[in-house]
Specification:
Strand content: over 45%
Number of strands: 9
Strand order of the largest sheet: 1-4-5-6-7
Structural class: mainly beta
Distance between the termini: 42 Å
């Protein structure tokens, strides 16, 4: 399998607060998103790892750029209930598909908007190349964690 070299993985933390959530003990609740970029095969080689941390309702962006692929994603998060998050995802991908008969680059582009309800024992999984797409496979896992 051909390894994907990640030229740039930028995580921008946008602390767009919708009000701090306070626990029964009076402490401000915080949320942590553990982001792991790995190969989507049996070896599951970790290519990159980071943590995004902030008050409840923290929003963040993930931009991924490789040689023939760009992904821009924005995550907006809110609490729906004590153990349930609403995660709104705005995802744009663009990858080099090949060349035209006139030797011009052809790109495959996709835009998606999704709203997900998730618990803290679940993860958001992005497959930017699609499932078993071509010779390159990549998986991005985002796992929320709550703490005070």
């Amino acid at each position: 399998m051909r390894k994907v070299s990640i030229l740039l993985l930028i995580l921008l933390i946008g602390l767009l607060e919708t009000g701090n959530r306070v626990s029964a003990s009076g402490e401000v609740e915080r949320i942590r998103f553990n982001v792991t970029v790995l190969t989507d095969d049996r070896s599951r080689d970790v290519l990159s790892q980071t943590t995004i941390d902030g008050p409840a309702g923290t929003d963040f962006d993930i931009d991924l750029n490789t040689k023939g692929f760009d992904m821009k994603s924005r995550f907006l998060t809110d609490f729906l209930a004590e153990d349930v998050l609403l995660v709104r995802v705005d995802l744009e991908t663009r990858r080099l598909f090949g060349l035209s008969p006139n030797n011009l680059p052809l790109y495959e582009e996709d835009k998606q908007k999704q709203s997900l309800r998730m618990r803290f024992d679940e993860a958001v999984v992005l497959l930017p190349y699609g499932k078993n797409g071509g010779g390159e496979t990549l998986k991005i896992e985002i796992r929320p964690e709550r703490y005070k």
